[in-house]
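The instructor's notes for this session suggest beginning with a concrete chain rather than abstract definitions. Hand out the sequence below and ask the class to guess, before any prediction is shown, which regions might be ordered.
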Amino acid sequence: MEINVLNVSGQETGAKVQLSDTVFAIEPNDHAIYLDVKQYLANQRQGTHKSKQRNEIAGSTRKLHKQKGTGGARAGSIKSPLFNGGGRVFGPQPRDYSFKLNKKLKQLARKSALSYKAQDNSIVVLEDFTFESVKTKSFIKLVADLNLTNEKTLLVLPAANNNIYLSSRNLKKAKVITADQLSTYDVLNAGKLLLTTGSVKTLEEAFAK
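After discussion, reveal the predicted structure:
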Protein backbone atom coordinates (compact mmCIF):
# COMPACT_ATOMS: atom_id res chain seq x y z
CA MET A 1 0.00 0.00 0.00
CA GLU A 2 1.43 3.35 -1.09
CA ILE A 3 0.70 6.57 0.80
CA ASN A 4 1.70 10.16 0.06
CA VAL A 5 3.96 11.75 2.66
CA LEU A 6 2.72 15.08 4.06
CA ASN A 7 4.62 17.84 5.82
CA VAL A 8 3.50 19.49 9.08
CA SER A 9 1.48 22.01 7.06
CA GLY A 10 -0.63 19.21 5.59
CA GLN A 11 0.82 19.59 2.08
CA GLU A 12 2.16 16.75 -0.03
CA THR A 13 5.95 16.59 -0.15
CA GLY A 14 6.04 14.61 -3.38
CA ALA A 15 7.50 11.62 -1.56
CA LYS A 16 5.63 8.37 -1.08
CA VAL A 17 6.02 5.57 1.44
CA GLN A 18 5.25 1.92 0.77
CA LEU A 19 3.50 0.30 3.72
CA SER A 20 4.48 -3.34 4.13
CA ASP A 21 1.69 -5.82 3.36
CA THR A 22 2.94 -8.08 6.16
CA VAL A 23 2.15 -5.36 8.72
CA PHE A 24 -0.58 -3.15 7.23
CA ALA A 25 -2.46 -5.53 4.94
CA ILE A 26 -2.88 -8.85 6.75
CA GLU A 27 -6.18 -10.66 7.29
CA PRO A 28 -7.24 -9.17 10.68
CA ASN A 29 -7.73 -11.59 13.56
CA ASP A 30 -10.61 -10.28 15.67
CA HIS A 31 -10.10 -12.75 18.52
CA ALA A 32 -6.45 -11.74 18.90
CA ILE A 33 -7.56 -8.10 19.03
CA TYR A 34 -10.18 -8.96 21.67
CA LEU A 35 -7.64 -10.72 23.89
CA ASP A 36 -5.04 -7.97 23.58
CA VAL A 37 -7.53 -5.19 24.36
CA LYS A 38 -8.92 -7.23 27.26
CA GLN A 39 -5.41 -7.61 28.68
CA TYR A 40 -4.66 -3.90 28.24
CA LEU A 41 -7.82 -2.86 30.11
CA ALA A 42 -7.30 -5.50 32.81
CA ASN A 43 -3.75 -4.26 33.40
CA GLN A 44 -5.11 -0.73 33.98
CA ARG A 45 -7.21 -1.89 36.95
CA GLN A 46 -5.74 -1.08 40.36
CA GLY A 47 -7.55 -3.93 42.10
CA THR A 48 -7.52 -2.06 45.44
CA HIS A 49 -11.23 -2.58 46.19
CA LYS A 50 -11.78 -3.79 49.76
CA SER A 51 -14.64 -4.22 52.23
CA LYS A 52 -14.28 -5.11 55.92
CA GLN A 53 -15.18 -8.57 57.16
CA ARG A 54 -16.59 -9.14 60.65
CA ASN A 55 -13.12 -9.73 62.13
CA GLU A 56 -12.03 -6.25 60.91
CA ILE A 57 -14.95 -4.23 62.26
CA ALA A 58 -14.40 -2.06 65.37
CA GLY A 59 -17.07 -2.82 67.94
CA SER A 60 -17.88 -4.52 71.22
CA THR A 61 -17.80 -8.30 71.44
CA ARG A 62 -20.29 -8.49 74.31
CA LYS A 63 -23.36 -10.65 73.85
CA LEU A 64 -26.26 -8.40 72.81
CA HIS A 65 -28.93 -10.14 74.86
CA LYS A 66 -29.55 -13.39 76.63
CA GLN A 67 -29.56 -16.57 74.60
CA LYS A 68 -33.19 -17.56 75.19
CA GLY A 69 -36.50 -16.00 76.05
CA THR A 70 -36.38 -12.89 73.84
CA GLY A 71 -38.60 -14.29 71.12
CA GLY A 72 -35.90 -13.41 68.56
CA ALA A 73 -32.94 -15.13 67.01
CA ARG A 74 -29.73 -15.72 68.94
CA ALA A 75 -27.20 -12.91 68.63
CA GLY A 76 -23.60 -13.08 69.80
CA SER A 77 -21.93 -9.94 68.36
CA ILE A 78 -22.83 -6.51 66.98
CA LYS A 79 -20.22 -7.14 64.28
CA SER A 80 -22.37 -9.82 62.67
CA PRO A 81 -23.13 -9.23 58.96
CA LEU A 82 -26.83 -9.35 59.90
CA PHE A 83 -26.66 -6.00 61.68
CA ASN A 84 -26.21 -2.45 60.39
CA GLY A 85 -22.51 -1.58 60.54
CA GLY A 86 -21.51 -5.23 60.70
CA GLY A 87 -18.91 -6.90 58.52
CA ARG A 88 -19.68 -7.83 54.93
CA VAL A 89 -19.93 -11.47 53.88
CA PHE A 90 -17.81 -12.43 50.83
CA GLY A 91 -17.01 -8.79 50.07
CA PRO A 92 -14.39 -7.67 47.50
CA GLN A 93 -10.74 -8.16 48.39
CA PRO A 94 -7.61 -6.68 46.76
CA ARG A 95 -6.55 -8.68 43.71
CA ASP A 96 -4.40 -8.49 40.60
CA TYR A 97 -6.43 -8.53 37.37
CA SER A 98 -3.46 -8.69 35.00
CA PHE A 99 -2.76 -11.74 32.86
CA LYS A 100 -0.19 -12.69 30.26
CA LEU A 101 -0.44 -13.27 26.53
CA ASN A 102 2.05 -14.76 24.09
CA LYS A 103 4.23 -12.26 22.22
CA LYS A 104 3.18 -13.66 18.84
CA LEU A 105 -0.51 -13.22 19.68
CA LYS A 106 0.06 -9.61 20.79
CA GLN A 107 2.02 -8.94 17.62
CA LEU A 108 -0.78 -10.42 15.51
CA ALA A 109 -3.32 -8.22 17.33
CA ARG A 110 -1.31 -5.05 16.65
CA LYS A 111 -0.84 -5.92 12.98
CA SER A 112 -4.57 -6.65 12.73
CA ALA A 113 -5.40 -3.25 14.24
CA LEU A 114 -2.98 -1.50 11.85
CA SER A 115 -4.52 -3.38 8.92
CA TYR A 116 -8.00 -2.21 9.92
CA LYS A 117 -6.75 1.38 9.98
CA ALA A 118 -5.18 0.95 6.54
CA GLN A 119 -8.43 -0.53 5.17
CA ASP A 120 -10.36 2.48 6.49
CA ASN A 121 -7.83 4.96 5.02
CA SER A 122 -7.25 6.23 8.55
CA ILE A 123 -3.46 6.36 8.34
CA VAL A 124 -1.64 9.63 7.66
CA VAL A 125 2.13 9.59 7.06
CA LEU A 126 4.14 12.70 7.90
CA GLU A 127 7.75 13.50 7.22
CA ASP A 128 9.94 13.37 10.34
CA PHE A 129 9.66 16.63 12.28
CA THR A 130 10.26 18.24 15.65
CA PHE A 131 9.23 21.36 17.56
CA GLU A 132 11.83 23.92 18.59
CA SER A 133 10.07 24.48 21.91
CA VAL A 134 7.12 23.24 23.95
CA LYS A 135 4.02 24.99 22.60
CA THR A 136 0.52 23.56 22.62
CA LYS A 137 -0.34 26.04 19.83
CA SER A 138 2.18 24.31 17.57
CA PHE A 139 0.45 20.95 17.98
CA ILE A 140 -3.01 22.50 17.56
CA LYS A 141 -1.82 24.08 14.29
CA LEU A 142 -0.40 20.75 13.12
CA VAL A 143 -3.73 18.99 13.70
CA ALA A 144 -5.69 21.87 12.13
CA ASP A 145 -3.50 21.88 8.99
CA LEU A 146 -4.23 18.17 8.59
CA ASN A 147 -8.00 18.85 8.94
CA LEU A 148 -8.18 16.60 11.99
CA THR A 149 -9.29 19.12 14.63
CA ASN A 150 -12.38 17.11 15.59
CA GLU A 151 -10.72 13.70 15.28
CA LYS A 152 -9.08 11.60 17.96
CA THR A 153 -5.47 11.38 16.82
CA LEU A 154 -2.63 9.07 17.78
CA LEU A 155 0.81 10.29 16.72
CA VAL A 156 3.48 7.57 16.67
CA LEU A 157 7.10 8.76 16.80
CA PRO A 158 10.18 6.60 16.13
CA ALA A 159 11.79 7.82 19.37
CA ALA A 160 10.90 9.98 22.36
CA ASN A 161 10.60 13.70 21.67
CA ASN A 162 9.74 15.77 24.75
CA ASN A 163 8.86 18.94 22.84
CA ILE A 164 6.20 17.17 20.78
CA TYR A 165 4.91 15.08 23.70
CA LEU A 166 4.59 18.03 26.10
CA SER A 167 2.98 20.18 23.39
CA SER A 168 0.17 17.63 23.02
CA ARG A 169 -0.31 16.63 26.64
CA ASN A 170 -3.12 19.12 27.42
CA LEU A 171 -5.23 18.15 24.40
CA LYS A 172 -8.02 15.67 25.10
CA LYS A 173 -8.25 14.27 21.58
CA ALA A 174 -4.50 13.93 20.97
CA LYS A 175 -2.05 11.31 22.15
CA VAL A 176 1.65 10.97 21.35
CA ILE A 177 3.59 7.74 21.86
CA THR A 178 6.73 6.09 20.54
CA ALA A 179 6.66 3.09 18.21
CA ASP A 180 7.72 0.69 20.98
CA GLN A 181 4.75 1.83 23.13
CA LEU A 182 2.16 1.07 20.45
CA SER A 183 -0.79 -0.94 21.76
CA THR A 184 -3.80 -2.45 20.00
CA TYR A 185 -6.14 -0.44 22.24
CA ASP A 186 -4.50 2.89 21.34
CA VAL A 187 -4.64 2.15 17.61
CA LEU A 188 -8.33 1.21 17.67
CA ASN A 189 -9.26 4.04 20.04
CA ALA A 190 -7.88 6.68 17.67
CA GLY A 191 -9.87 8.06 14.76
CA LYS A 192 -6.73 8.83 12.75
CA LEU A 193 -3.31 7.23 13.10
CA LEU A 194 -0.46 9.65 12.39
CA LEU A 195 2.84 7.98 11.51
CA THR A 196 6.14 9.56 10.54
CA THR A 197 8.39 8.04 7.91
CA GLY A 198 10.73 7.06 10.73
CA SER A 199 8.04 5.35 12.80
CA VAL A 200 6.80 3.38 9.76
CA LYS A 201 10.31 1.99 9.33
CA THR A 202 10.61 1.26 13.07
CA LEU A 203 7.28 -0.57 13.18
CA GLU A 204 8.04 -2.68 10.10
CA GLU A 205 11.45 -3.64 11.53
CA ALA A 206 9.90 -4.53 14.91
CA PHE A 207 7.18 -6.74 13.38
CA ALA A 208 9.65 -8.39 11.01
CA LYS A 209 11.53 -9.96 13.96
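Then share the key points. Residues 103-119 form the longest helix (17 residues). The CA atoms of residues 28 and 112 lie 4 Å apart.
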